[in-house]
Write a sequence for this structure.
């Protein structure tokens, strides 16, 4: 295939080519940057919570009365919930991963507070069966015993033991066995590490270290119930759980139970929506550009009707005509892509400096380039095929 | 003559329906996408209290950790967005501001007295009586409460319209009783529909939260030893065992607002809080460089970054998309006009001036622009419905208002005119002789 004549034709009739190339370049900048943001959000959302969130239902029963026996109310509620067919395990817990509300506390590694290094731990306060309810694996040491759980108000003491997430335990104790070691609160209280578990994610969306989390044996009356079910029963059980909690005490405020997955989806709703919008913009941008290529290619075929006929009359085969238009289009697309590369990085640079966006990762580039070539060729294929159908006889008619 | 051009344009539109609908479609899509994101941006950056937003100020006191600022930003450190209880109470003593209110958000279990129905958790704002005149809250029945009620933590409540409709059937309920967390409260007022967007005075729950259902005096939850539902941030390792310890702590958890009507009043209040901070410094507090801020509403919303980077990014991409659509339209229009060159050649040969040709094609461009704009409006309407269903809390905010409708059509016609500029110029420059010869 001779490229020279195609190039010189292009150069003599620049406008259409420039328009297409500019469209391709802008499309590329939009697609690359949008795809990049989408991938970034996907990564964030794919981070595991470390708990069996797909099988958990969360329910709250709030008590305003303060003169109550917390332990007996929790035991009554728990046994009522456990008696529901399909409920596997029930725990009282202060908060869950990605609920976006939680607490953290600062600790030191040394009793001489100033000597140690300080770190921040998010904490989940819960009971003795929470490993089963949440689906946690005890990796070292042990989980809390029943008699270690502090009920508040009532017991009037502060727990002195903690279980850490694996990742943060390794970080704090630099790989040494954490079991039996102590960490110290800012008041100097010593807390013993009795076990570690498979790492659990933080309660917040984007605050604090992801796996800097811990568990404490502590239960308050207004903590939520985490209820583990089999996946097939989950949604069916929600109204039953609500009725059960209401029936036990009609003065309580029972919030509508939610699945943990729903809570997580709410936390990520902005990211999901953003990704949807970006995906739609990407799809529209590519289709508009493709349609533009179809339009201009048809026009250029129509304009060169007679020339094509002449070429055919003097011996060009159909595939010559086809490849002429495809190569011409490929040249334009490639020109657009080169310009698009510059534009993409310029846009990304601007976004990085102006907004909190990570730097462009060039891994996806070849994919986008291939994709745009394909779109260009596919869009030009229709008009080019039509061009091959032009009757050579046309050359003889209107000279 | 214009009527004739309109007819010509219409014929041309009809003659090549596919190409024309492609052009209209391209403009419509560009307008649809950019107007959707522009509307979002427009509403997010809107002024929630336009009549006095420059006279109402958020109070920020820099009580934070001397070694580690609350905000570490490009433009330097900034004080925390909320205040401590002891500082807010000290500021409330000042009579410099026209109105002033500390506030917190909290849920209360509400039900009618002894009707046996299950209590319902209602979002409640505990604040000072000044809240209502400061934010121009419209009342349907009754009014807010006075400083006496504030000081004595009187059990009075102001209801939202929705709650008054629900509990009292929309009647004037002033003087009626409502049980909140088991204690009787007297209704003193019912407010009309009031939903400032953004929810500027407390951004903890979400920037576009609904306004609260109930309003009670600030000291009510304090006397019940309640914590807030919002966010409470503490930095100092200090012993907090009782509620009193908490109230005296360095934890920030309250929102504090003041209305200052003149520059003089504002300077006076700024001097007052700075003097207070210096006084407190003697007690070992306010260890950071003096940076107490009074930010009017729009400055405050900008400081809290209510318009997110996501929205700005979408705007940028949407307008690039519009640019692509316009390039597309230029190409298609060029194709269409050039195709007609022989006809134009005849018109020119028969005496039409260049200006006539420009007018003829200009009319066609404008028709395409208006049609694209209308279709684009329809698309942005659909786009906003989608946005409302995807984003939690956007139900009330993503709506087209008349200003946006006008700007959508304006943008479409402007874009089409821009796209039509080059093709129209090109067609007006053709040499009649070349095209006449070919026929």
């Amino acid at each position: 295939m001779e490229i020279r004549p195609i190039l010189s034709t292009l150069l003599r009739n620049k406008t259409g080519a420039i328009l297409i190339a500019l469209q391709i370049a802008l499309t590329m900048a939009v697609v690359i940057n949008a795809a990049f943001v989408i991938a970034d959000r996907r990564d964030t959302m794919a981070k595991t919570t470390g708990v069996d969130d797909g099988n958990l239902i969360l329910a709250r029963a709030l008590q305003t009365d303060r003169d109550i026996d917390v332990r007996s109310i929790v035991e009554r509620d728990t046994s009522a919930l456990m008696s529901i067919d399909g409920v596997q395990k029930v725990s009282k817990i202060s908060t869950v991963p990605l609920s976006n509300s939680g607490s953290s506390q600062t600790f030191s590694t040394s009793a001489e507070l100033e000597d140690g290094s300080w770190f921040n731990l998010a904490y989940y306060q819960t009971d003795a069966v929470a490993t089963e309810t949440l689906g946690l694996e005890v990796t070292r040491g042990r989980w809390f015993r029943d008699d270690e759980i502090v009920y508040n108000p009532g017991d009037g003491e502060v727990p002195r033991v903690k279980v850490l997430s694996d990742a943060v335990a390794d970080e704090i104790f630099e790989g040494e066995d954490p079991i039996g070691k102590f960490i110290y609160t800012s008041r100097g209280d010593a807390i013993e590490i009795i076990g570690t578990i498979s790492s659990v994610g933080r309660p917040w969306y984007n605050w604090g270290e992801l796996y800097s989390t811990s568990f404490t044996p502590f239960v308050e009356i207004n903590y939520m119930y985490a209820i583990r079910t089999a996946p097939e029963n989950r949604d069916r059980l929600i109204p039953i759980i609500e009725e059960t909690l209401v029936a036990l005490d009609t003065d309580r405020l029972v919030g509508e139970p939610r699945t943990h997955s729903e809570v997580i989806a709410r936390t990520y709703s902005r990211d999901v929506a953003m990704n949807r919008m970006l995906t739609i913009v990407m799809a529209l941008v590519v289709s508009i550009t493709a349609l533009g290529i179809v339009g201009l290619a048809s026009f250029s075929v129509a304009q060169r009707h007679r020339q094509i006929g002449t070429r055919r009359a003097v011996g060009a085969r159909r595939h010559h005509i086809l490849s002429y238009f495809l190569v011409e289009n490929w040249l334009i697309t490639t020109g657009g892509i080169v310009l698009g590369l510059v534009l993409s990085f310029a846009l990304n640079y601007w976004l990085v400096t102006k907004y909190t966006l990570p730097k462009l990762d060039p891994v996806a580039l070849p994919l986008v380039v291939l994709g745009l070539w394909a779109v260009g060729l596919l869009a030009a294929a229709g008009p080019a095929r039509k061009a091959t159908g032009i009757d050579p006889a046309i050359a003889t008619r209107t000279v | 003559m214009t009527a004739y051009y309109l007819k010509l344009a219409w014929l041309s539109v009809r003659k090549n329906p596919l190409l024309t609908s492609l052009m209209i479609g391209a403009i419509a899509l560009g307008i649809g996408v950019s107007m959707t994101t522009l509307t979002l941006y427009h509403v997010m950056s809107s002024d929630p209290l336009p009549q006095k937003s420059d006279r109402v100020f958020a109070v920020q006191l820099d009580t934070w950790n001397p070694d580690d600022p609350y905000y570490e930003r490009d433009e330097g450190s900034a004080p925390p967005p909320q205040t401590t209880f002891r500082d807010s109470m000290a500021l409330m003593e000042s009579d410099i501001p026209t109105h002033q209110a500390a506030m917190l958000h909290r849920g209360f279990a509400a039900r009618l007295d002894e009707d046996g129905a299950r209590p319902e958790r209602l979002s409640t704002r505990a604040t000072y009586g000044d809240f209502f005149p400061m934010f121009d809250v419209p009342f349907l029945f009754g009014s807010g409460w006075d400083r006496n009620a504030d000081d004595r933590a009187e059990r009075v409540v102001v209801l939202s319209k929705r709650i008054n409709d629900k509990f009292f059937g929309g009647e004037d309920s002033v003087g009626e009783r409502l049980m909140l967390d088991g204690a009787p409260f007297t209704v003193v007022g019912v407010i009309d529909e009031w939903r400032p967007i953004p929810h500027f005075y407390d951004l903890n729950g979400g920037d576009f939260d609904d306004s609260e259902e109930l309003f009670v005096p600030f000291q009510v939850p304090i006397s019940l030893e309640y914590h807030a539902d919002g966010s409470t941030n503490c930095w100092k390792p200090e012993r907090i065992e009782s509620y009193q310890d908490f109230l005296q702590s360095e934890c920030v958890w309250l929102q504090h607002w003041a209305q200052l009507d003149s520059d003089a009043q504002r300077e006076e209040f700024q001097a007052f809080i700075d003097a207070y901070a210096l006084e407190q410094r003697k007690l070992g507090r306010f260890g950071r460089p003096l940076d107490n801020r009074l930010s009017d509403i729009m400055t405050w919303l900008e400081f809290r970054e209510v318009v997110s980077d996501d929205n700005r990014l979408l705007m940028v991409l949407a307008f690039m998309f519009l640019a692509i659509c316009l390039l597309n339209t230029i190409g298609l229009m060029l194709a269409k006009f050039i195709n007609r060159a022989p006809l134009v050649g005849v018109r020119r040969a028969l005496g039409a001036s260049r200006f006539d040709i420009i007018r003829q094609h200009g009319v066609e461009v404008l028709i395409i622009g208006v049609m694209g704009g209308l279709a684009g409006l329809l698309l942005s309407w659909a786009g906003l419905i989608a946005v409302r269903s995807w984003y939690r809390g956007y139900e009330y905010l993503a709506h087209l208002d008349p200003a946006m409708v006008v700007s959508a059509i304006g943008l479409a016609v402007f874009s089409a005119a821009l796209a039509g500029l080059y093709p129209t110029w090109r067609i007006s420059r053709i040499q009649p002789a070349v095209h006449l010869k070919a026929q």
Q: What stands out?
A: The longest strand of chain B covers residues 99-111. Chain B is about 50% helix and 15% strand. Chain B touches chain A through 46 residues (CB under 8 Å).
